[in-house]
Each structure stands twice: as C-alpha cells, then as structure tokens.
Amino acid sequence: MDSLHEKFLEEVTEFVADLENALLELEKNPENQKLIEKVFRIMHTLKGTSAMFGFDKIGNLTHDLETIYEFIREQKTTLSEEILSLTFASIDFIKVLVETNNELPTEEYKLKYETLLFSIKRKVDILEGNHSATSETANSSALGEDTPEIVSDEKKIVTYYIQFIPAGHLLTTGVNPLYMIDDLYALGECKVFLRNKNVPDLSQIQEESCYLSWDIFLSTSEEKSTIADVFLFAEDACTLKIHKIADKSLLQDDAFIHKMKELSVVTEGISLGSITAYLHSVSKESARKEEKAESKKEVVVEDEPKVSLSKIASSKNNSLTSIRVASRKLDEMMNVVSELITMQARLTLLAEKNNSTELTSIAENFDKLLRQLRDNSLKICLVPMETIFSRFQRLVRDLSKDLQKNIIFSTEGGETEVDKTIIENLSDPILHLLRNSIDHGIEDAETRIRNGKSAQGKIHLKAFYSEGMVQIVIEDDGKGIDPKRIREKAIEKGILSETTPLTDKEAINLIFLPGFSTAQKVSEISGRGVGMDVVRQRIEELRGEIYIDSKVNKGTTMTIKLPLSLSIIDGILVKADDTCFVIPLSAVDKCYEIKHDEIHAGFNDLVIIDGEQVPFYYLREEFAIGGEAPAIEQIVTITYEGQKIALIVDRIVGEYQSVLKPLGAMGISKGQELLLGATIMGDGTVALVLDSGKIVKQLLHKVFI
Amino acid sequence: MKKTILLVEDTGSIRSLVQLTLQGEGYHVLAGVDGADALKYLDGTNIDLIITDLNMPNMNGIAFIREVRIREEYKYIPIVLFTTEAESIKKKAREAGATGAIAKPFQKDELLGTIKKLIR
C-alpha cells in the first residue's frame, strides 16, 4: 500500500502543476471555456482521490472550489480576481499538505488554513444564495432528519410482507433479481412465493423480459430502510411494496405459511388485503382461546431466549477472525519451536538412558504436543500465493503494453498456501519466467495469426498442492522452445558433445545451465544478465526444483516444485556405522531387510525387491564410511518422480523430526549436493539430511533434469 | 470460477487501489485508463461487471456506458459508475444504462457491498 501512497502523491503533484498552468492561462484569458472545464475536472479528481487516500484537508479545500468552478462552468458566475487568488492560495496549501502528509506544521498554518477554508465556503454560500438552495443542502438536511432516529438496543423481530414486481425491462439494467432475494435471506428468516402467472406461451416469450414477480415474507430485526436498500439497483425498474404485518415472526407459524401457500395458487394471489384479513381472523380466534387458557403465555416466554441466542451468535460473528502479526515475530516463534524440537530429542534420549517409565511417558507426551505445536506454527507461517499473484497481473499488463503484445494473463489457485519465507523469495524467479514468456514466448499478433493461433496470447499461472509439495506452473501458448536449437547452441558452447544422446525434454532443460541464453536479440526486458541458471539456483535454494516442457509452436510449460516448509522436516533416522542420516519422510516408500552377501552378489548394482529390479545406493560406500558392515542390512526404498531406488543402510532407528540447519561454511559444504543440510541430535551429534531427489537423479545419471 | 471485473478509471492511484482491493477479494480485474482505452476489452472477453469513473479524458463514463450497451454481448452486464455528482448525473447515467452508482470517496465495504449486490 505504501507504493500506492507514493503514486498518489506523485499524481497530486502532477495535478497541481497542471492546475497552476491552467490557472495562469486563465488569468490572461478568463473566458476560455476549455480551461475552465479543465480546472473543474482537476478539482473534481483531486477531491475524490485525496479523500480516498486520507488527505481530508485537500479534499475539503477542493470540494468547495469544485462547486465554485461548477458555477463558472455553467456560466452562473464569472471568474473573478477573488476566485483566482483563492484558488492559488489553495494550491499553495495543497503543496504543503502533500509535503507534510496531511499535517499542518504550525499553528500559523492552521489558522491560515481555517481562514482560507472559511473564505472559500463563504464564496460558495454567496453563490448558492444567488441561485436558490441547491440539491446538496437539501440532501444534507434530509440526512439530518435521519440521524436522530436512535436505534434501540433491543431489536425486535417483526415480519414484513414484501411485494416485488419487476418491470419487464429489469434484466436489461444488469440487475439479477435473484441476488436481491438472496440478500433478503441474509437479513432474517425468509419465505418466498413466486408469481409466474404472467409468463406467456413459449412462442411469445421475449427472452430479455422479466415475467416473474415475488411475494416475500421476511422476519427480521432490520429496519424497513435496510430492506429497501436491498432493492436499491432495481428502484427504477420495479414496483416495490414493503409492509409490516406483525410484531413477531410469523414464519414459524405453520398455519400462516399454509394459508399463504394456498393464497399463492389461487388466481387473486397473495395481497396485503388477503394477508391482513387472515391475520385479523386469527388474532380474534386466539384472543378467544386465551380467555380460556393462560398457558399460551409460556409460548411467548419461550420466544424470548431465541432472540437472545441469535444475538449471541451474531456477536460471535463480529469477533476477530484474523490478526496481523509482524513477520519478524513469526520468525522468532519458528526459531523457538525448532530449538524446542532439538531439546525434545535430548529429553527423549535422557528418558531412554534413565530407564524411568515416568520420565518416558512425560517425554512421549511432550513429543506429541510438540508435534502439534510445530504443525500449528508451520500453518501460521503459510501465506496464500494470491499475495504475489496480484503483483504479476500488473507486470504482465505493463510489459505486454511495452512490447505491444496482446496477452491475457490468468491465474488459478491463489488460495494455495506456502511458507512465507518461500513466497518472499519466489517472486523474483517467477517474475523472470513471466518476463521470458512475454518477451520470447508469446509472438506478435501477426506471427500468431500466420501460425493459426488467436491474435491474443495466453499466459496462465497456477499453483496447487501435489505429492506433498506445492507446484507452480506457468503456461504460455507462445512459440515454444526448439530442442534442436538448444542442442546446437549447447554444442557450440562446448557444454554438450555432439554424440551425447539427449531426449528433447532433456535438451530443453539445458537452458538452466550457467551461461546459456538463446535469445538472439537481448532485449531490455529479459536480457538483464540474469539467466535461467540463476532462476534455478534461486529455486534450489528454496529446496525446490524447476523444469520446462515445451512444444514448438504450441507453447511452453514451466513447473516449479517447492516444499511446504523450509526449516523443519519429518524424516527417518538411519545409521551407517556410527554416522546418522535422515531421509525425508515424504520420499520414503517402504523398508526391507537384506543379507550383506546379497548386495554384491547381484548384477549391475540392482537388488530384487518384491520381484522388481531396483537400483541401489549403498550409503556405506558412497560416504566412505569405515567399519564392518552388519550381516543383515536394511533397505529404505525411496521414490522420486516415479523412479524407485533402494538406499542400503546399516540400521533404521526410527521416525525423526529434524530441524534443518544449513551446512554453510563447514568443510564438507563442497560437493554436498546430495545433502539438504544437517540436524542436531539429542546427544549433540550431527545427522546429515539426505536430498532424496538428488540421490535418485545421480544414481540414474539424469544430470540435466 | 473467478468473476471478471472491468475497471475504467483515469486516476492511476485510485485505479491501483481499487484493483488491488478487488484482486484481494478474489476478483479478476481488467483495467482501462479511460473509456476509449477500455473499449478494447469489449471484444467478446468474458466480463461479469463493469466499474467506470465518470470524468475521464477520451470518452467519459456516460459515453462509455452507451458504448457498452450497444454491444449485444454486454447488453445485460451490470455497470457501476463512480461519481461525486448530484442526482441529475445519476439519472443521466441510468438512462445511458448504468445499473448503479457509488459516490467518491467511498469505503472498501461500500464498494464490495455494491459489487456483491450485483454479481456473485
């Protein structure tokens, strides 16, 4: 919103400059109708805009000035020296107010402001005095009559009969009568009877005409005027009658409803006359009954708690449903939660060592609660994607204008929630991808038509949950990426040898390699020296992945996959000799046992699991861990994009929630691609968190995807 | 299904303010800087509601509403006019085909309430 504020101030400064110029011209040439029109328009805009942004003082000044210029515009008065100097004085004030953010710096200024406002008002009064009371004063007095109507605290439920007969042309004004009836339901209990007697024979029907009308009974505590407000937009295009027919709710009265149903089907239909006649007869009868038995009173008493109950319900609705919190506070909270998780691991360990059942049960309960706390805190840090989507709308619009491309940008899944740290770092990469799509993806209108596409390009941005991750997909229907060209370029740059076999998809994803850019003409928009490699790097820093799919002349689809949270992950704790590893639980499939001898007896680094050949990754060997392997080892199968591999470890310890710490400047940070980070265990030792996706990729030699 | 609102407003800050507000409520917003500019959206694009300012250069609000109403596919679409003027202007707007009017300056709730009365 701050940027909006700045934009507003910029605009006001522009308006003021325009205004000054126009006034200087007017001084020389006071009869110029065009200039007067211009001054009036600027005043008008200034008034509306500044009031919207809370600059009420500018609003006050311009409000009356606008009235004065309206008189001049309608030639009811002439532009006098006095008016001009009032205007100039006001302009000077507007300048000050813009500088000081709607504050008057000194008492002297305040006094001056009041005097100026007063002089302008007086001028308006004089002008209006000359030309009889304007509608505006009439309006304000009407308002004045309304306000004293003090609404009593104890709002009683009454029943209204509303007769709503739309004129035939109602639909052509853009009004949907059903919405109004919906709104009535929001005001209280409602019973609606449709009148469709006027619907003509099908052959005679004019589809844009409204033939229906409604009889509505509404039990509500709202004022009659609130009900009339519902029909505000239909005012000119309907006959509306609202009558109070009872001081209580009639809608629980089955006999009444039944009678109305009966009335609605007979030819005369429901009318105020027939309703009052019925109510009259009923009240007579009940009066007679009441004489006989007083038990009726209890029913009345029973009614009262109902009212108060509904009141409680409505007051509940009014309580806060969301609050704003500084994101720094959330960071602090997450920090504390992660520390707690580390501490909890220590507690569990201590309980195990001491072999005390009491302590163990405390530790277990603590663990359960902590998991809830963790899940809740993670949820609190989630922000809907919408928050960055709206920023993109504007960008695409501006950019496509700059590049003179006609593009429809649509978004989907704005409600998808992602950790706020991810969102903060996501906007730049997505911006870059969108820029690419607009600049290189979508062709100009002529080319598109030549290629048999609609002149208008489409870019669709969507977010959704899938496989325990958040996916963000950017689709365009532009020219796509030609894998042949990518391959040629890669060979030319020495990234790829001519003989390397690559699928088209693999070739396209080469553009994520550093120093790769296929744009022949570097434009101002996407050629900023930031390549796709940086985009990928950014996404990977967020523990995410990105890939591209593209069909020549059909379009390009870019998919970003992101974890739901950055700092805490559920995993399985495994051991190889004395070294602990954590495998993210999201990737884990199943656990098995295997005899040590079988591992190397197999052919081609494959093990057979459930009758299926699965490539394996032998943790002990890959991480050069010494010691003797146990006779029976354990297998954890992990799946990544449909590819299954087996991780062979010494021992599976169990489920473990780990707080991810970056490896950072530690010695092993080089060549740590296979690790997401480290986590601290209860006894203070460090466990390494494996990046399951990377391991699968490396094992299957799919370097480029 | 997201509802699409066409917003026609020449003052940039108001346009952005309204646009952000509407987007925050989950509407899809198309924006035009004046009547003439906004005509480009009337090419069969699905629009559920139009909000237009009154005083604008290059085709004002009333003229724009007339342009909308002569197009068959936008004949019945609800149109809301931003205005500060008196009854006479509102009457003129209704005759041109506006569904309703909101007086500037307005509160967020006023704007959203009016929209919810017309589309949902």
TrEMBL record, chain A:
Domain HPt: from-to ranges: 1-101
GO molecular function, a single term: phosphorelay sensor kinase activity
Keywords tagged on the record: ATP-binding, Chemotaxis, Kinase, Nucleotide-binding, Phosphoprotein, Transferase, Two-component regulatory system
Domain CheW-like residue range list: 568-701
Modified residues (Phosphohistidine): 44
GO cellular component: cytoplasm
Catalytic activity: ATP + protein L-histidine = ADP + protein N-phospho-L-histidine
Domain of life: Bacteria
Any GO BP: chemotaxis
PROSITE patterns xrefs: CHEW, HIS_KIN, HPT
Top class in the EC scheme: transferase
EC number: 2.7.13.3
Histidine kinase domain ranges (all copies): 311-566
Known function: Involved in the transmission of sensory signals from the chemoreceptors to the flagellar motors. CheA is autophosphorylated; it can transfer its phosphate group to either CheB or CheY.
Record protein name field: Chemotaxis protein CheA
Automatic annotation (TrEMBL), chain B:
Ranges for domain Response regulatory: 4-119
Superkingdom per UniProt: Bacteria
Keyword Disulfide bond: no
GO biological process, one term: phosphorelay signal transduction system
SMART domains: REC (SM00448)
Coiled-coil regions listed: none
4-aspartylphosphate modifications at: 53
Keywords (A to Z) from UniProt: Phosphoprotein
Full protein name: Response regulator
